[in-house]
Amino acid sequence: MSQYDIIAIVSLLGWLVIAGSALASYRLGWGQIARMALTWLAIFAGLFLLVGFFIQG
């Protein structure tokens, strides 16, 4: 693992803390947070598959 990998991991963790604290400030219920997380996961997975399809095709 290079020094750049460590910097990337630390910065990713920092951004996750910032995003998590912004989400917590809305004081949503666990069910609504889970639904939002699954929606975003579906969006990114769909885009990943779509881009992968066009790059290979």
Task: Write structural notes for this entry.
There is one protein chain. It contains two helices and no strands. The chain has 57 residues and is an all-alpha fold. The chain has one domain. The longest helix has 27 residues. It starts with a helix and ends with a helix. The relative contact order is 0.06. The model has no long low-confidence stretch (mean pLDDT 91).
Question: Could you provide a short overview of the structure?
Answer:
With 57 residues, this protein is mostly helical. Helices cover 86% and strands 0% of the residues. The relative contact order is 0.06.
Determine the number of helices (DSSP H or I, runs of at least 4 residues).
Answer: 2
Percent in helix: over 70%
User: What fraction of the residues are assigned to beta strands by DSSP?
Assistant: under 5%
Shape: flat
Q: What is the rounded distance between the termini?
A: 34 Å
Q: How many domain regions?
A: 1
Indicate the mean pLDDT. Answer: 91
Series of secondary-structure elements, N-terminal to C-terminal:
HH
Q: How would you classify the helix and strand content by structural class?
A: mainly alpha
Give the low-confidence spans.
Answer: none
- Would you count the extended β strands for me? 0
How large, in whole angstroms, is the Cα Rg?
A: 16 Å
Profile the largest sheet: none
